[in-house]
Structures are given as structure tokens and as C-alpha cells.
Amino acid sequence: MLLTGAEIIAEVLIEQGATTIFGYPGGAVLNIYDALYEYRDKIRHIMTAHEEGASHAADGYARSTGKTGVVLATSGPGATNLVTGIATAYMDSVPLVALTGNVGTSLIGRDSFQEVYIAGITMPITKHNFVVRDVTQLADVLRDAFRIAQTGRCGPVLVDIPKDVTAAKTEFEPLGPVVIPQPALPAADDIRRAANDINQAARPIIYFGGGVVSSGAEVVLADLIHTANIPACHTIMGTGVIGDSDPLNLGMVGMHGCFTTNKAIDESDLVIAIGTRFSDRVALNTTAFAKHAKIIHIDIDPSEISKNVIAHASLIGDVGAILAAMLPMIAPAEHTEWRERITKWQTEDYVPEDSSEVLRPHQIVSTIARLAGEDAIIATDVGQHQMWAAQYCERTQPRSFLTSGGLGTMGFGYGAAIGAKIANPDRRVVHITGDGSFHMNLNEACTVVSYDLPIITVIVNNTVLGMVRQWQTVFYGGRYSSTSPERKTDFAKVAEGFGLSGVCVRTPAEFEKAFTQALADNKPIWIECLIDKDEKVLPMIPAGGTVRDMITK
Amino acid sequence: MTKKEVLSVLVDNHSGVLARVASLFGRRGYNIDSLTVSATNDPDISRITIVVSGDEAVINQIISQTRKLEETRDIFALNDCRSLLRELLLVKLSANESKRSAIREVADIYGATIVDLSVDSMIVELTGAPSKIDAFLGVIGEYDIIEMCRTGITALERGIKK
Predict the structure, then answer these.
(1) Nearest to B27 among A120, A124, A310 (CB)
(2) Are B20 and A123 in contact (CB < 8 Å)?
(3) What are the Thiamine pyrophosphate enzyme TPP-binding domain coordinates in residue numbering (chain A) (predicted)?
(4) I need a surface site. Which of A316, A442, A476, B123 has the fewest CB within 10 A?
């Protein structure tokens, strides 16, 4: 059938299962929006306040479902506003297709109104990107974009489409969703050798990350952990894969991980790293990291092997498939002595003190976890609240804790919560943010109101830029340069202005009451929690340090 | 230990591929000593020859990161013994009549060609292994070099790959 480029975009989106997209209209995408009007029964378009919000929403949609998120923006500023969202998805390996309009091909390269070379701008933060200059190539390029975004290590792909290409007509032939090739399994001997290493280890530890979530490998990972009684710890991206109540789950590793976890890595004789990349927030000191241990690295991306920490052995491929192949070779074990040592260390773990007078951050997060339940999705921004949320959110399911792990994007949370709620209308979505992060993208409140999304936003307000201030306290002798903005924002009033409700609480009892009410009301709301500005994220290992440098007060 | 490695990268012959490779090197902080790009006998494929320096871990990273690019068809390190490495040098020397014969003598020994002559200058062209070009420049540097230009290395493996 003879279709315009804009109609082809709509057809391919439907064909690839992308029936919800996030975006913002503009001149260069007018043809696409005109087509979307025609396809409005088949494609739901969510308009955000800002393209950055749309990109985070598409990302949150993808993280919470495993599907590819789609975001659409116009040329120039529309496209550049996606950059932070694309980079966020890139760093956390989230499948995302970003469609940008551009000026007509005859205007490209002439510094025309709202023209930027977005392909050049996004080259380092995309898996791949395309500029489509010929309508006959449009459908295949879009399909390629979906294929690349989901193949191997997932990531964002950008397709830039000049305006005249969206108007031009060509024959369109419908196809099915792209077939995602499954990576080959490593050689059986390599898997057997790794299994033998695991069977022979006296003090093994599993350290896993977001790759387990991407692969959907949580069940087989749990089987492995329980078969061989191997203690496991995770990165922030691995939150929720193994429940907190599992005695073999040692919790988060790294800069703000538990003492026990970091100690166990330090003393282990075998680290099995699964779907994770030894980032500087985990392997803070690459030469001292697990220095007594042999390291087996299981990952889908060969370029991650020995990038930061030298791996003694590696298995490349889908982590779920590799673990499934390995599981029958794993001998049941007890590791009694090793586990006893770990249990002993756990008595030394940092435990924050509760208060009934003032709100303490761990109590806020624990209350949210308890009241919202296991099925709730928590989205965070970045900073102290993010670490508190990671430490105390008690997630038991993968894809239920959405956070910007790699890029550390302040302003990520509200958009991500919107995307998650659109994708999961029946699940509770709680957005935990800080006053610093929230000021960056609180404009998305209008989206929440327009689409009547009952997202509960909990603003952990310490009136300062808490994480930076914490570093200034510890490493800069309390010279608080530009971290106390003295803002006078009345969040409840701002909320009201946007058309949602807002409440401010100061004690655990007030918070519990407000949060319980919010769950019952099931409407968009902001709950501002006032906390002390000297609250710290503990424990903490300084950048480049080891467990021996841990700070606990 | 830092070493130099010559990498041969076969990529799709599209516009923007070189920018993508260069962008990867820029972003990851890899040091490019030289880079040449040319068409191959297959119109769909271009060959990028990159000389990089770094320790073994860095070079392995460069190879695996470049391999990940969507437009990379193949990438491999060229072994010095099993490869032919060539570079072209053009060097313009200040050469009045009194110096000409001496320069020509050096050029003859290295198999270089004098390709331009003016009253005060000459341009010498030399093709060869980079070490030969270095050696030639070492000697010819005794004379007054006005301008010079090297193409960077282009290279092929000997024989047929099994």
C-alpha cells in the first residue's frame, strides 16, 4: 500500500508492538502527529511537559515492562532535550527507540530554524543511530532500530527523520515484529570449568546486576544461589531480583552497600559476577577489589570482560541461558563455615536508629515498602534519597525499582514513574525524590494530572543538596559551597497549582497517616517529608577506598 | 606495558562511519597515532587502518568496543611479521643548487623519488614501511625541511586468511 513516511512510522510502531509512545509535538514532526491523529485508536501518545520527561517516561515504561520504550520529539531543541534521557538509558542498558524529526532535507546543514545534527550529538550515547534521507528506507530503518535496541546488551537507538521524508510516499509492506537473535551459548567445556570452580570454592560470592533483570534470569539465579548455598549481593540495578528476606541475599554492594557485603567480597575466594560491570560505585578500588578471589564474569557484552577488573574466566551470552546450562553441573553445597563468618559480620552491620519524634529517612522508605506492598513499583531520582530507597525499599520482584544507576540523572524519577504507571495501570507506583532532584523535573506534575495518574510522590526534603553536602562534610571540611539553596518552595501550594494535592509531614506518625490516606485516595499526590539536613547515607566507602575505609557515622 | 598496535577495521561504506569510530575513540580516551580510511574492492565496505598505543588491556578494550559498533564488519590486529605496512611521505626541502645532489644521493639510497623541483626547493616522495620513513626523515632532517606530510599507515595481511 502507498503510505506517507508519517503513516509508515505509525504502521511500524504498531507492527513492533509499540502502542504507547511518549513525546512532544513541534514543527518538524507535524506530519507524524497528523498521522498519529489518524492512528489514535491504535497508538496512545502521552504528551509530557518537556521532552526530557518524555524520554524518562519511555525509559520507565521499558524498565518496568521489558518492552522497548518509544519517545518522539521534534528537531533542534526537542531533540537535544532528549539527550539526558537517552544517555540515562544508554548507561543502564534500557531498550529505547528515540524518534526525532528534523528540518527538510533541503534545509539540512544550513543552520536552519530548529536544526541540529542530533545523530552527531547522540553518537556517544546511543547503541546506534540513523538519519533517514529516503522514505523508501524508513520502514526497514525503524525495524532495525527496534532490533538493535533489544539485541544483545539492550540500549537506545535514535532515528532522525527529516520533515519531507515524513511527507513523501512509498509502498509499504507490513511485516511482523523483528526477531531478536539469541546469543550463542559459550562452549560446554567453558561452562563446565566455571561450574567446577564454583563447586570447589570455599568462600564463593555471587555479585549480580541489571543484566539479570534484562535477561529475566531471576528464577534460575535463585536456583543457583540456593542449590550451592552461595551468598549473593547486587548492584543498585539488581535491586528486587532476590528478596531482602532471603538469608542468602546480602544486599547491596559498593559505596553505600552493607559492611557484610563488602567484607564478604573482600574475603571471598571466588566472585561470580553476573550481568554486571564492576563500575566505580562497586569496585571502588579496582586493584584491591576481591583481591583473594578468582573472578568469573558472566555477561552478554564481551567488551565488559576485564574492562575495569581483570576476570580470570568469562562466559559470554545471555546470563539466564548460561545459568540454566550451568545449573545441572552445580553440586549442592553448604558452605557452612563461610556462611557462619558472614552471619557474624552481619552483627556489625550499620543499623540506623528509629525515632518517633522526627522523620528519619530509613523509616520513610520502610513505611513506603510496608504500606505500598511487594507489588508496588518504586521510582527514584538521584541523591541521598535514592540510596536510602535502595537500601530499605524491600523489593522482591525485578523491574519494581526504577532508578538511574549509571548516569545518576537527577530529574529521572517523575518521568520514569509516569512511564511505569502508564505501562502498569493496576500497580501502585511510588516516586521517591529529594527536594534537589524534584526541582529539576517537577513540571511533569501537569502530565500526572492530565492523564490522572495516581502516582504518590514522596519528597524527602532536607532543604539542601544532600549527597553533595554529605561529600562536603566528609571530604571538604564542611565548606558547603552552593549546596544550601535556601529555597522557599511550598510544595503543597505548588502541587495545588498544578491541580493535584500536596501535604507536608514532620513525624513518622504523620507520614504513615498521609501515606495510608494517599493509597486509599488513589490520586496523584505529593507528600513532603521534612528531615534533618545532616542525615547521611551510611555506611559509605569513599571513592577509591575499600571496606577498611568504611565510614559509619 | 605500552605498545603500538595496527588495527584493521572493516566497516560499512556509509557516510558517518568514520565519525562514529572516531567518536568512540574520543569518548573512551583511546590514543590514535594514525588513522587512514579507504575504499576496498567491495563497494559496500571500507577499511580503516588505525595505529593505537596502549597496554594489552587497553588494546583489547579498543578491539571489543569497536567490534560492538553496528557498522563494524570485522576488526583484527595486524601482526608485524605477517603484514605489510606502508606509508607515503611527501617532504619539501629547501634545496638550492649546491644541496640538490646531496639530497638526491640520500633519496636514491632510500628509493625515494624527487617529484618536484623549483629554484629553491624540491619535494621528495617515499613509500615504505613506517620505520623506513622514520629512518629517511632522520637523515633528510639534516637538510632544511620546509613542509612535510605523512599519510599514516595502510596495511594488509600477507597471504590468504584461513
Answers:
(1) A124
(2) yes
(3) 381-529
(4) A476
Q: What is the pLDDT of residue A185?
A: 97
- Residue B133, C-alpha cell as written in the block: 620513513
Name the residues of A annotated as catalytic: 51, 113-114, 163, 467
Residue type present at position A35? A
pLDDT band at B162 (very low <50, low <70, confident <90, very high): low
DSSP, res A236: G
pLDDT, average across residues A522-537:
98
> Residue A56: pLDDT above 70?
yes
A171-196 pLDDT tens trace? 999 999 999 999 999 999 999 999 99
First to last CA, chain A: 68
How big is chain A, counted in residues? 553
Alpha-carbon distance A150 to A552, whole Å?
Answer: 41
Complex-level ipTM: 0.89
The one-letter code for the residue type at A328 is: P
A93, A123, A278, A301, best to mutate vs chain B, most B CBs in 10 Å: A123
Q: Which residues of B are less than 8 Å from A127 in CB distance?
A: 70
> In this complex, do A306 and B16 lie within 8 Å of one another by their Cβ atoms?
no
Q: Which is nearest to A119 in space by CA: A101, A138, A135? A: A101
DSSP code per residue over A484-533: -------HHHHHHHHTSEEEEE-SHHHHHHHHHHHHHHTS-EEEEEEB-T
Residue A52: its pLDDT value, please? Answer: 98
Nearest chain A residue to B62 by CA distance is A303
A95-99, A412-416, A489-493, B15-19: the lowest-pLDDT one: B15-19
- The B residues from 25 to 64 touching A (CB cutoff 8 Å) are 26-27, 57, 60-61, 64
One-letter amino acid for residue A17 of the chain: G
Min CA distance, B160 vs chain A (Å)?
27
